[in-house]
User: Fold these one by one.
Assistant:
Number 1:
Amino acid sequence: MIQQYLGISPDKLIKAGWETLYMVGISLIIGSIVGFFIAIVLWLTRKGGLKENPLLYTILNGFINIIRSTPFIILLVCVMPFTKIIVGTRIGTKAAIVPLVIYTAPFLARLLETSLLEVGGGIIEAAQSMGATTFQIIVHFVLPEAFASVILALTTGTIALIGATAMAGYIGGGGIGNIALTYGYQTFNFPLMFATVFILIAFVWIIQSLGNRLSQKRRTHQ
């Protein structure tokens, strides 16, 4: 029934769904680690920060602005030589992860920096008065206080990443986006295109609902 209506076998749809989850999962893990590191450095080195460093802050801030202002489809093409060095190929699901990480890490860094900046200065001053080190302030005071906002930041980043994986079909990255492009758009198969859009909407709805629920639960227990 599905193959007759959509013009594609259910196995291909299921495989595409797993490819999307794979790209999002790996890219999110790596991007979150890099993004957290950049966000913390930005938070520390900003004007009035615990380790104020205008030069380092300006460099990191400029890097984030450049990457975020570059359309993802252009980024895909620009980093192809780097992708070849890292994974040995310019096309495919694994190759798509490299530009996805480069895209999502600065995006998450900015969101996470905003979450950290929401922590009141009084908490930091209290931590300093107790003799806490910079590492202890971040781990035991700032991150727990900002955790609910961090959850929402990661949720927003994940949803943006799902949208980016749809464009990864341009380099044969696989996933739902590749199905929509190859079997839907290029063959004028509109039922399949609508079906892939519905699947992506379902992914986004589930992730957003889960993120909102976890964030609200965290705020309630603070």
Number 2:
Amino acid sequence: VTLSPDARRTGVEGTIIVRCLITAAGTVEGCEVLKGLPLADAAVLAALRGRQYRPAQVAGRAVSVRHLFTIKIKR
């Protein structure tokens, strides 16, 4: 995650918790910040949306699932 210059300058650190939908195509959508950090939420959401995952499978078929991400931000 690349934080904004303001976030780096103020030394933002802590834990962000985000719930997202990983679609059957492996894309990340519908993210909701459950616990955020000032100046860091937008960067974390952009990083998650830019990722591609291997989708979960049920009976050999790809399915969408909700996933809880815990991201630790350190200086």
Number 3:
Amino acid sequence: MKNSPIGILDSGIGGVTVLKEIIKLLPNEDYIYYSDSLHAPYGEKSKEDVINYVDSIVKFLISKNCKMIIVACNTATAFAIKEIRDKYPDIDIIGIEPAYKMIHDFSYNKKTLVMATSGTIHSEKFLNLYHQYDNDNTILLSCEKLATLIENDDDGIEDYLREILPKEKIEAVVLGCTHYPLLIDKIKEFTP
């Protein structure tokens, strides 16, 4: 008899970076990955729209008998996780958020850059996390177009990174969007 799958949702291809890590930890599970490329990226959408998108996807994943749902999108977690957990209390729903607390735990005094979508950077959920663990040495960078450029495999990614990344020396970078690990080498290249 086949196991119930784990559902993973993202606003596009970024969640594959999360799926890859989950498979390493749980290689014997079955998965359903839902990429909402129609509405990608969520970072520039309204909170109400993101809640509606996520709710629709969660309903679909529940209809596929998923035993757990992972919201592999920082903006979706920031905007919708509370509402979705309240609406579906009988299923484990796990969200992802920028790993800013790790800076507090391991690199407290280092010059830090947090890269995320506008939705995540300005969300109440992230701002609460940020203020709780602020090292007074952090730059919050709203990367308005980066997830879209990644989704479209756009040739303008390098130019955009050169334009937005700080010119000062950065010692730690928090990638607050699941799309951004796809560019880790380029981010390292253009960040002093």
Number 4:
Amino acid sequence: MTKKHSIAVLLPTRGRTTALDRSVYSIIDTAADPSKVQLLLGFDRDDTAALEHFDTNLRPALEQRNINFVAMKFAPLGYVNIHKYYNHLAKHADADWLFIWNDDAFMSTPGWDQVVAQHTGQLKVLKLHTHNEHPYSIFPIVPQTWIDLLGYLTGHQMIDAWISQIGYMMDLIE
């Protein structure tokens, strides 16, 4: 099935408005073609500061720049259940690739989206180069096929470790 976007960036957030802005703009500003990127943002219903910031600042900026986004509200699940946010966001993505991202990370690689898109059609766990070159894929990028095969993105709060372990065991890490 053809997807509308190349990459869906899955981004639950809580209470970090300045970091969220930096993170989101870094994704958009470094993408070669931001029109092929879908942002899926998850907010806790009780995080009034973040929701107000989104409605007042981030949403209008994304709309003005014609960025594809979906914002969802969740009953607060806490960090111990962060995988539930990601699983829910992933099931609403309309993209070939699912990119696990967070609100205190920022992208510094121009054209990152083109690098990911080069792997479309492959069953891989894509691993970003990070500041500390961790052995796990700290921000794993998996194909939509991952959801099709497993029915969910991750079964554990330690998303990067969980996905990376499967990727290593199946020789899918790239």
